[in-house]
Amino acid sequence: MARTTPARILDTTLDIANDMGWGRLRLRQVARRLDVSMADIRKHYRDKDAIADAWFARADAAMLAKRGKGFARLPATDRLYRVIGAWLDALAPYRGVTGEMLGEKLYPGHPHHNLALVWTLSRTVQWIRDAAHLDAAGRRRQVEEIGLTALFVATVFLWLRDETVGQQRTRAFLAHRLAGADAAMARLWPPR
């Protein structure tokens, strides 16, 4: 029997959920597929929601991966486009399951998941800002955070329904909205 690792549990869970849906998935099915006990899974993940969190953490890691030379010299809109794109691309192989995970986290009867999702979104936006080299402080930072949060949420919800090849509709939406945000920020804080 192969060693049970968090990555193996996550990958197996995603494969099963891809076949049957996140809502129907039970951790006993994952344990059976891996030929381990449920206690072995519990050593790594407290519940299904923790597995979903690990899936989103994997996207965060892809978003935060080292960028090529010259990245810091790109315009802010290009840096943001690449960082957010990397996050979405990491989740793309299981886009449907990702949507089901988010739906479960947003279920009104799970306020403990709802609140945790708000904190996770806030942290993700902070990582996006840092990865994209957005270094503003004060009022400009507050405006960036609010705008970026709204843009990120809108982009994710469009991406979840985007059936175009390579999610080109989402990519066009993101590029267009980033250009608009850049123009708005230039009006608020004209370049010196």
Would you mind describing this structure in some detail?
By secondary structure, the protein is mainly alpha-helical. It has two domains: 1-45, Arc Repressor Mutant, subunit A, CATH 1.10.10; 48-188, Orthogonal Bundle (Tetracycline Repressor, domain 2), CATH 1.10.357. The protein contains nine helices and no strands. The protein has helices spanning 6-20, 27-34, 38-42, 48-64, 76-91, 95-105, 111-131, 138-161, 168-188. Helix 8 runs antiparallel to helix 9. The protein is elongated. The model has no long low-confidence stretch (mean pLDDT 95).
Which helices and strands appear, and what pairs or packs with what?
Elements: H1 6-20, H2 27-34, H3 38-42, H4 48-64, H5 76-91, H6 95-105, H7 111-131, H8 138-161, H9 168-188
Helical content (DSSP H or I, runs of 4+): over 70%
Report the top-level CATH class of the largest domain.
Mainly Alpha
Number of domains as seen in the coordinates: 2
Poorly predicted runs of 5 or more residues: none
Strand content: under 5%
Count the strands? 0
Shape: elongated
Oligomer: single chain
Radius of gyration based on Cα positions = 19 Å
CATH topology of the largest domain, by name, is: Tetracycline Repressor, domain 2
Please count the helical segments: 9
Structural class: mainly alpha
The CATH superfamily of the largest domain is identified as Tetracycline Repressor, domain 2
